[in-house]
User: What shape does this take?
Amino acid sequence: MALVDLIDRTRLPQHIAIIMDGNGRWARRQGEERIFGHRNAIAAVRAAAEGCSELSIPYLTLYAFSTENWARPRQEVDALMELMVETIHRELKTLMAHNIRLRTIGDLKGLPAKCARELEEAVACSRLNTGLNLILAVNYSSKWELTEAMRKLAYQVQEGSLDPEEITDATISAALQTAGIPFPELMIRTSGEMRLSNFLLWQLAYAELYFTPVLWPDFSKEDLFEAILEFQKRERRFGMTSEQIKAL
Ligand code: IPE
Ligand code: IPE
Ligand code: MG
Assistant: This one.
């Protein structure tokens, strides 16, 4: 029986977030430059998007470039930006053919103009697509996002349009880049690292975390299905007791 057939279609995560990690190590293991790993990462992006589409999972967020990644060698950063421009340009037709809506979170203003433009064009072009929402986190970090949200709310208070007493969990969620998008229920990180690296700290508050040693360029649809199967084995208690959950 294929792995996909073991998945319970009635209990799918509605949003999966992935920290795509391990490209550099994947390349180094073969005696290649790190950028070779980034180039070979596109197939895994395709596999993850196809896997989600196949299961009609509506949201997939991929961490593509963190604000901390600017600290990498200039040559690697430039190559990553170039690769992003090329890939978005080349894959736009495929996104449209698969009814995928591309979205972004992160500070696009901080990207090279060409890169921001390519992303904005693909986002605009695919905005009416009704299939998978593919959300790329680019020049993103959670602390940046939270800082921006706090600033926005502080200005609203200063203007008198927001009463501090009325600030709730929902007000804060709505001020984030992910406003209107349900929180991820499953977070996958590849390459064996067990940390969040400034990714969706607020939104992942109750997500199930799944870590796999697979390096991102090797990540396949089967790896995604395995993560979903593991998610379905977990009991999500949200503070309640196991007995309460079973009685629901
Ligand atoms: C993830 O792979 C891709 C980005 C962060 C852009 P890495 O480049 O972090 O690969 P490792 O972790 O060095 O192997
Ligand atoms: C996290 O990976 C960022 C992305 C996947 C884009 P890193 O490889 O940059 O994370 P750290 O620095 O090892 O935590
Ligand atoms: Mg890494």
